[in-house]
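step: validate -> pass
step: tokenize input -> pass
step: predict -> running
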Amino acid sequence: MDAPVCFYCGARRPGLWGFGPVASRLIGRLDFAGAVTIVCVVAYVASILLDPGAALTVPRSPFGLLSPSDLALVKLGMTGEGAMRRDWWWTLITAIYLHGSLLHIVFNLLWVRQLAPAVEELFGTARLVVIFTAGGVAGFVLSNFASGAWTIGASGAVFGLLGAMVAYGRSRGGTFGTAVFRQYGQWAILMFIFGFFMAGVNNWGHAGGFVGGYLAALVVGHGDQRSERGLDRVAALATVGLTVAAFALALWTGFFVLR
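step: predict -> pass
step: emit ->
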């Protein structure tokens, strides 16, 4: 735990002064796709309960079914240029877990449950946590800069997972790498094109999420390059902690600062 250098791989401070083993135990037990699903569902139900009258309004299309009000979403951490002008940086994280309608959350969670296990298999749980969050944050950063519109949803993070798989395919090469690159690259292109034919889709967020996930994957590396280390797990634990802190700030601001 306190060895300055790993006797086997030569990594410096493999135990990270005691934090590495703790992070390994905590992150090793994490079902990330399940955790994202729970947080998204709880946040969605909370947004409905905050303004049930608005949510029960008859929608113009099925895509607007059970849509929370904008005020409810702002209280829970919706992001946008307006949030950035108020220095609400935490909304770049909390908005990942908020959704604007029943179909919105269903579609995004289906993609999370489809893609997260694939990324986890190739990168590991800890690096999956970092890639997912980096994709979501990068998507909102680009969206806030390019359009400024209020926005929510896990689709930027979903595109981050796609970007990570494309990065893996390019890095690995060979028959398997090429197959991964083509499959997930085609999915990303089709989903991006599809976004232009649906009202309210944040394609800036999708583009930023893809780039964020791609770059994050290059930085953290994948399992074929090296196995996960204590530092990866500490980074994942820090990301989870930052997400918890972001929600705490969002709730404090939404319910005690905003009037």
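step: describe -> The domain at 34-257 is CATH 1.20.1540.10 (Rhomboid-like fold).
step: cleanup -> pass
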